[in-house]
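WARN retry 2 of 3 for item q-0093 after timeout on previous attempt; input resubmitted unchanged.
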Amino acid sequence: MPQATGEPTRQYPDGRHQPAPGLPSTADTAATRTDTELLIAASVLLADAALAARQAGADLTGALTGGRFALQALRRPAWALGAALSCVRALTSPAGLGFGPNGGVIGELARAAGNVTRRRPAAVAMAVDAFALRIEAATVTHPNLDTAHARRLTGAVVAGDRLEAARALHALVERLGVTRALTTVSPVIMELLALTGLLDENPVNDGFSWVTLAGGVPTTDPFLGLPSSLLKFLNPGPGRAERADPDPILAKVLGTSRNDIVSYVNDIGALGNHGLVLLRRVACTDGSERHVLLLPGTSFALLSNSTPQDLVGAFDGCLRTDTTYTRAAKKLLRRAGVPAGSELMLVGHSLGGLTAMNLAADVDVASQYRVSHVITLGSPIDAKRPADHTTRVISLVNKHDVIPMLDGRGPAAPHDIPDHWVELAWLDESYDYPLSHAPQAYSDSLRGDLAHYREQVNALIRCYDGEITGNQPYTLRDR
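OK item q-0093 returned
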């Protein structure tokens, strides 16, 4: 049975409430919430201290290796020697910054040498503790992380013991299978990746960890440190949009469509993930004509295919806004002749939700059309922002779903979304990924015990009520 975030009770038809089976009482829940909040608050303080220590190391390194210091050393050599010794002591002493040089050519070379020789600065020690507290906070609300096998894995990663972590991961997969093991660690996947990058000998991939610690979206991969800019070479297509005819199944689904979030999710499911999207024209009850663009998610069959809905496109959409999917969708809007100034609602699942936010963040799109609503399902959009601040963003998240957490804001992350956004999150019975990520899982939850969420979303999009006067599928291609 789905459980809405922050709602640990079950409501019966007669209005009575009692704790759902397996859930704590109200008093226990309050204590647990307090403990979780304390863990998160402590992790924030440690993260801030780690970032400050890292910056202090960069400042000291810059002062010690800069041209101004060299000039002063020529004028006052005795003072310069004392200052240099003090800086070196602060940068390398266990009582100071540990081994904290970084920044600039000399600082980065020293940092790389420290990584290879496993000399860890104090900033890294505090960052590790901050991530460990985040993991512990997630364990409080996700009991599957509290099992012996899961704790063995998280403990090994926090300790930087890669061999033991590999053994623990193998044991977890052997016991649970790949999908359930992935689902088990999904609430802390970003923390585990950040710790892996921070505690290995590779100095190039540390940026992923520090950006994750600060609450940003990493622009490098956690293993090799490769920049996301390389994705534009893997996903360079200009995008193309062609009108398509619906097959009988899609035509039947579209025949029952209406302005309802469950209907939109079912439409997206019927579109599939082989390049089809849908542009809908609505004669609204207030006399206006509005448009809805439905954007399905990723095909996992191949790393790359001839459509924008592939794995390469998914990574690209997460890290950049100008992607093949967005370019093809913009050509669709132009080809369909959507009038300038028209109100437009974008609804997307997974990569489709990312693309919806990327379109809303595109200044050209925002200046040509009035993007009134963006609705996403299972999409990692929390670090993205629409160009028009009046755009209503509605994010629906199944907390068993791995994908929405890839933006770095998992259930234990201390960073939040803008106050004017609407995020509706829950835990349901579709525990295993990828079932928990499927459009059908979201549809089932919203039609069932989370019908109040369905009503809430429908109330926010009521201006799109009216007669559907056009349902045109389009096939999007890379080229």
